[in-house]
């Protein structure tokens, strides 16, 4: 399967204006317009959007957008999904265009309920580069979901979607990449009693981005719920913090990259805390990854 990258994450937020201000001023994204349903588009690349804030009473994940290498790759994915009994919806062309995307398809991951929208192309934002402010965000890094059906979920992601496992923590987490995209993980899956969004990650350029965030968040009384710490699996230094609805975001600095061919085999780590964070940093277990309802796709209706 020829993926390009994790393209965007659409989040449901209870107050779009408040969240937009937070994602611009505190996270460091650039605004790129609004949509016809009150959604706010934000970016950290040349893409039209990498984060979309959508009005809702249930804060959480609306949709995960994934960019394929081309239209043929999109066809291949759709055929594989259908062959495995997964319903695939062709997104109406006008609806895809309203989100500045070319051909797009949608399906539900049966084990988290998350909606995926895969598309061949997204229009660039006037050819203008992302201009960082306080934080040199490199890219939207990854999204992590959790589900009670962890093992089945991993099987779906690896066998049907053909993602590659980079590393796993026995029985608790699995980190997968959008091959041939080199980054250690674009998607992670964890275990929980009910399906939930775990966190959304932004990769940053330097360690100063992490240090400055700690100072900025302290002054603005933004809760830091984990870190700064270090993940043994990806090698990333991390900082987890909360958005205005209590959803968990992460900055990470540094990540292992894999070659398209001849990559090392996946490792499985012991299910101990050091496998998640070998610095054993501050962790707020009550608030980290506590908010993040997953919106279900009703295939009979438009989702936006
Ligand atoms: Fe992460």
Strand coverage percent? 25-35%
- Helical content stands at 10-25%
Q: How big is the Rg?
A: 18 Å
- CATH architecture identity of the largest domain: Roll
Output the number of helix runs: 6
The residue-averaged pLDDT reads 95
How many strands? 18
Low-confidence stretches: none
Terminal Cα separation, in Å? 27 Å
CATH fold node name of the largest domain: 2,3-Dihydroxybiphenyl 1,2-Dioxygenase, domain 1
What is the chain-wise order of helices and strands? EHEEEEHEHEEEHEEEEHEEEEHE
Report the principal-axis shape.
Answer: globular
* Ligands bound, unique: fe (ii) ion
**Quaternary structure state of the chains depicted:** single chain
Task: Assign the structural class, choosing from mainly alpha, mainly beta, alpha/beta, alpha+beta, or little secondary structure.
Answer: alpha/beta
Please name the fourth-level CATH homologous superfamily of the largest domain.
Answer: 2,3-Dihydroxybiphenyl 1,2-Dioxygenase, domain 1
Task: Give a quick account of the main beta sheet: strands, pairing sense, barrel closure.
Answer: 9 strands, mixed
Structurally, the number of domains stands at: 2
Q: Determine and state the CATH class of the largest domain.
A: Alpha Beta
What is this entry, summarized?
The protein is about 20% helix and about 35% strand. It is built from six helices and 18 strands.
Secondary-structure map:
Layout: E1 3-13, H1 16-27, E2 30-34, E3 40-43, E4 51-55, E5 60-68, H2 71-83, E6 89-90, H3 93-98, E7 104-108, E8 115-119, E9 137-147, H4 150-160, E10 164-169, E11 173-177, E12 187-191, E13 196-204, H5 207-219, E14 224-230, E15 237-242, E16 248-253, E17 267-269, H6 273-276, E18 293-294
This protein binds fe (ii) ion.
The site of fe (ii) ion (FE2) has 5 residues, from strand 9 and strand 13.
């Amino acid at each position: 399967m020829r993926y390009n990258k994790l393209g965007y994450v659409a989040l449901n937020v209870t107050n779009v204006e408040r969240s937009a201000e937070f994602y611009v001023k505190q996270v460091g994204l650039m605004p790129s317009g609004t949509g016809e349903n009150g959604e706010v588009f934000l970016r950290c690349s040349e893409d039209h959007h990498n984060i979309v804030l959508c009005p809702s009473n249930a804060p959480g994940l609306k949709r995960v957008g994934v960019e394929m290498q081309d239209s043929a790759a999109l066809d291949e994915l759709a055929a594989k999904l259908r062959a495995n009994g997964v319903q695939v919806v062709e997104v109406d062309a006008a609806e895809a265009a309203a989100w500045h995307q070319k051909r797009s398809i949608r399906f539900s991951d049966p084990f988290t309920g998350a909606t995926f929208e895969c598309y061949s192309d997204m229009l660039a934002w006037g050819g203008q580069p992302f201009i960082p402010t306080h934080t040199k965000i490199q890219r939207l890094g990854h999204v992590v979901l959790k589900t009670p059906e962890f093992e089945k979920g991993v099987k779906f992601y690896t066998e049907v979607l053909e993602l590659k496992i980079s590393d796993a923590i026995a029985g608790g987490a699995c980190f997968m990449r959008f091959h041939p995209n080199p980054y250690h993980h674009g998607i992670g899956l964890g275990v929980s009693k009910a399906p939930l969004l775990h966190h959304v990650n932004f990769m940053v350029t330097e360690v100063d981005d992490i240090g400055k965030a700690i100072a900025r968040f302290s002054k603005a009384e933004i809760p830091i719920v984990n870190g700064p710490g270090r993940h043994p699996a990806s090698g990333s230094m991390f900082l987890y913090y909360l958005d205005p609805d209590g959803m968990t975001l992460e900055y990470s600095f540094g990540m292992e990259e894999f070659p398209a061919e001849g990559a090392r085999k996946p490792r499985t780590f012991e299910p101990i805390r050091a496998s998640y964070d070998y610095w054993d940093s501050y962790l707020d277990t009550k608030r980290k990854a506590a908010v993040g309802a997953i919106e279900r796709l009703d295939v009979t209706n438009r989702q936006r």
